């Protein structure tokens, strides 16, 4: 049982998922992907979600990040039932509290690294935040201060991944969702990326990272395994 009701209630639940089911529809045909997932993630935890290709990891991540709606079940984020809040509240929660690192980076090709990092602030800006200064600081944090004007096509895969990480942090989110942040990177660059996540974890961020790489287990507090749309007991 991985639901929040059996966990220590003293620490806040950042993610509390109950009975989550997700199907896709191909024409009239329902294709069930997630089969009733319970998952509790506490504030400050660094959790890896591992499982074979096609097992539903990205689908689950999209549900956690409210990028898509469940077919049934509940997704609670920071104590809020995401099905019960208004679209505006949901947009704020997503914009301010969650930083996304997508599996395929999702950088905008015609924008520079700096502009890509700033992108989330065009729709959501925290009051009083020096966004341009922060974008520069974040690019420095990920080791790209000498590449801020480069477009994604002028960056290596690892550098693009770093831009995506810097962008995920621009609104100072409490929860970071990263889908295969080290996928397709060489081992040295992977270690550098994981050092960035470890540092963010030390600073109290809650991080949920999808990975297929067993080497990454050493960095996290807990591994959640997903198989054919079900979470194993661990
Ligand atoms: N938009 C969609 N429409 C229909 N089926 C989909 C859609 N998105 C995903 N699927 C199916 O859902 C299943 C789970 O996909 P998902 O992307 O969650 O897998 P994953 O575990 O992230 O895999 P990988 O490790 O390859 O990224 C797959 O069988 C996929 O074909
Ligand atoms: Mg995936």
TrEMBL record:
Keyword Magnesium included in the entry's annotation: no
Q: Which Gene3D superfamilies match?
A: P-loop containing nucleotide triphosphate hydrolases (3.40.50.300)
Per the database record, which ranges form the ABC transporter domain? 15-234
The protein's matches in InterPro entries, at most eight in alphabetical order, are given as:
AAA+_ATPase, ABC_transporter-like_ATP-bd, ABC_transporter-like_CS, ABC_transpr_LolD-like, MacB-like_ATP-bd, P-loop_NTPase
- Give the residue range of the signal peptide: none
Q: Which UniProt keywords apply?
A: ATP-binding, Nucleotide-binding, Transport
Source organism superkingdom: Archaea
GO cellular component, as recorded: membrane protein complex; plasma membrane
Q: A single Gene Ontology molecular function, please? A: transmembrane transporter activity
Q: Please identify the protein, giving its name as recorded.
A: ABC-type antimicrobial peptide transport system, ATPase component
What species was this sequence derived from?
Methanolobus tindarius DSM 2278
High-level lineage:
Archaea, Methanobacteriati, Methanobacteriota, Stenosarchaea group, Methanomicrobia
């Amino acid at each position: 049982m991985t639901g929040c009701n059996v966990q220590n209630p003293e620490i806040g639940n950042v993610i509390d998922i109950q009975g989550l089911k997700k199907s896709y529809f191909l024409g009239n045909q329902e294709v069930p992907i997630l089969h009733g997932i319970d998952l509790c993630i506490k504030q400050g935890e660094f959790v890896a979600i591992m499982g074979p290709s096609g097992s539903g990891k990205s689908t689950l991540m999209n549900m956690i990040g409210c990028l898509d709606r469940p077919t049934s079940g509940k997704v609670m984020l920071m104590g809020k039932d995401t099905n019960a809040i208004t679209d505006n509240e949901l947009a704020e929660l997503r914009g301010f509290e969650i930083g996304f690192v997508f599996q395929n980076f999702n950088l905008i090709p015609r924008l520079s690294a700096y502009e890509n990092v700033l992108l989330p602030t065009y729709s959501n800006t925290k009051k009083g935040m020096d966004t341009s200064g922060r974008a520069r600081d974040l690019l420095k944090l990920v080791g790209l201060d000498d590449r801020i004007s480069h477009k994604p096509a002028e960056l290596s895969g690892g550098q693009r991944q770093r831009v995506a990480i810097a962008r995920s942090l621009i609104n100072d989110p409490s929860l970071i969702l990263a889908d295969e942040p080290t996928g397709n990177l060489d081992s040295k660059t992977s270690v550098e990326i994981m050092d960035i996540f470890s540092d963010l974890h030390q600073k109290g961020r809650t991080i949920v990272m999808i990975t297929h790489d067993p080497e990454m287990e050493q960095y996290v507090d807990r591994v959640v395994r997903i198989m054919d749309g079900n979470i194993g007991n661990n």
